[in-house]
Amino acid sequence: MGTTSGTRVQGHVEEGWGKVADAFRANFAGNPGEVGAACCVYVGGRPVVDLWGGLADREANRPWGKDTIVAVASTTKGAAAICAHLLVQRGEVDLDAPVVKYWPEFGAAGKELIPVRWLLSHRAGLPVLDVSLTPEQVYAWDPITDALAAQKPVWEPGTKHGYHAVTYGFLVGEVIRRITGTSVGQYLADNVTGPLGAEFYIGLPEAHEARVSRLIEMSLEPTAEQREMFKSLDVNTLPPNMRAIVTAFLDPNSLSLRALTLTKPAMDFNSRAMHAAEVPAANGICTARGLARMYAGLIGDVDGVRILDDATIANAIVEQSNGPDAVLVKDTRFGLGFFLKSDDQPMMGPRSFGHDGAGGSMAFADPDSGLAFGYVMNKMQANLSADPRPVALIDAVKNCP
Is the previous residue joined to 350 through a cis bond, with omega within 30 degrees of 0? Predict the structure, then answer.
């Protein structure tokens, strides 16, 4: 499809969708610019945009190919939510039943009345742990689910919401495991991505490791130099929304940093160990095509396959949490496991739902237009609100037929 500042963009765009290709190219030419990325849009169950370009591994000068896959951080949470809603649709989960119905050990430390829906809407008060875990313990599954079962909530469950950045996947995932007898990743493969032919893994088979793009990671914790710089900053001169975020991220003991950096040392998103494990809030690996196809299969038929029906989707997108987030220190809006449309989550129409991930990845579906969107990249960027790269692509989508 041509080059932009030396970057070759490849793929397919149907007539009338050229503005998305223009925006995709512009993201590479912008400042600071993409390194490697892909974008896919489905409408009415078929792809109208499927683009990729740049480098999958900047250090090795490996180009991003049609089948390059990449880790998408919290965009994974949407896949875990899909599994939960499929169990609801099949009558195997009651969202208003207490979690202990499915996971008896969870009732310790005053948690016996927490319903399943509070796990999906970030209202359980369990974004952090009082015990310290290594990445290896998290990858092993049982150590972190045991710790969550024993953990006392840090706020009264149900009274407010706060982003369960890492723990979400294990809370929802253990309910799925107790009911099905299989892991989240296996349940996803058997019941969602397999039937759809959508490439999205939670727990990557080793056979696919060579196709993984190398992330250019960002650190959530300020460096020593950044801390010194901020010492001279009068936070009271900042806008109120930025003041709270900066204050939280400068405090190593804040709920924000503790939730977002749960392990010591941090998990390595470029490691085979992380890719092979199941961390259902954070380590999904996929193509943009797989993301868009998976979400398309929630709102309509894709080659004769549909995963969730209209009633299940309508239930999933009823607002559960809205307003100040106790962890992210900004306003967030959630349905059951999905972000809903807001200033921070632009998406499409008022009933759009989906999830983004740290660094920039994003996926959503819009039931009213029949549109599904997937965007992945390897250059992670920290933003106080929605990442400008997918926002530019979404704006272009809105200006197409």
Answer: no
